[in-house]
Amino acid sequence: MEHSNHTRVTEFIIQGLFDHPHYRGMFFGLFLCLYTAVIMGNSLIIVAIVIHPPLHTPMYFFLTNLALVDIMCTSSVLPKMLKNTMQEKKTISFGGCITQLFVLTSSLGTEVLLLTVMSYDRYVAICHPLRYVKLMSKEICIRLAVSVWAVGTINSFFNILLVLHLDFCGPNLVLHFFCDLPTILALSCSSTYLNEIMMFMGDIFLAMGNFLLTTMSYTFIILTILKIQSSKGKQRAFSTCSSHLLVVTLYYSTIIYTYIQPTSSYSMDKDKKVAIMYTLVTPTLNPVIYSLRNKEVKVAMKKILQFTTKK
């Protein structure tokens, strides 16, 4: 294989999210508050689930994993973004860009799989309640969680390997506020055909495949709920499903819009706004939508507050 004679790019310049220098302080404060909310909200959920035995169930076990993924996803982007917000020249090293890309893509893939597993958990609980203990045993839950993390990481690993085989010889301006796979491929001065094929196939499996599985699960769930005679039972079940479906719809719509398209048709300006949803807004809302309305979680939160006030 011939080596390229091009000078390899050692750093990338990040365009950023907003081009308003006079409002840097305001944007910095806003995103710092949101990032803090992501870390605090998801961390509290994890602690609440760990210290409160009634929450030691499969649903909350997977919710703990989801909270960890949300922290990882947001932390891969926001710290660097906050730093660049207050700087004239917004840069990231090549190694830093690859690291950010790996952590982000692995967390996104893992979250998609987790949403599917959580929908399966609800399907078993509502459609097959008598078999729930057997089908969602501790051993099975652990295997599902390990598989989810492994698939998300392996998918990201192969994409990163393909990126490392590309040549980057300029320009080095990333038209985004973080290193994302489509934006990085657009900067390569070598063929990205294989990268695009692998990225598209992976996203079809992770995004579309899991979306269809989630849709199937909730189709059966809704059909089962409609057969429930008690109006209170229907209302409670529909409330749980509507919250989960809201997050699933929001998450999948942004992911599919961003990734299931060729690099040539990639719209940077629109996708920067969409990316805020799955890197910041969704991780902020997930603890509220999934947990904070639950009575058991509120009891666990009170335990945490009482413990901290005693200290």
From TrEMBL:
Its main location: membrane. It comes from the Eukaryota. Residues 41-290 form the G-protein coupled receptors family 1 profile domain. The chain crosses the membrane at residues 26-51, 58-78, 98-120, 140-164, 204-226, 238-260, 275-292. One of its GO terms (cellular component) is plasma membrane. It is a multi-pass membrane protein. Keywords: Cell membrane, G-protein coupled receptor, Membrane, Olfaction, Receptor, Sensory transduction, Transducer, Transmembrane, Transmembrane helix. It is found in: Cell membrane. InterPro entries: GPCR_Rhodpsn (IPR000276), GPCR_Rhodpsn_7TM (IPR017452), Olfact_rcpt (IPR000725), Olfactory_GPCR (IPR050516). GO terms for molecular function: G protein-coupled receptor activity; olfactory receptor activity. Belongs to the G-protein coupled receptor 1 family. This is Olfactory receptor. It comes from Chelydra serpentina (Snapping turtle).
